Amino acid sequence: MGDGSSALDHRGFVVLPGVLLEEPMRELADAYDAAAAASCPDDVHVGTTTTRVTDFVNRGAEFDGIYVFPELISACRHVIGGPFKLSSFHARTLEPQRPAQDLHVDVARESADWPLVGFIVMIDAFRPENGATRFVPGSHRWDDTPERTMVERRADYPGQVLACGAAGSLVIFNGSTWHGHTANTSDQPRRSLQGAFIPRAGRAGTDFAARMAPATRARLSSLAHDVLGL
Question: Does the structure show a pLDDT above 80 at 4?
Answer without folding.
Answer: no
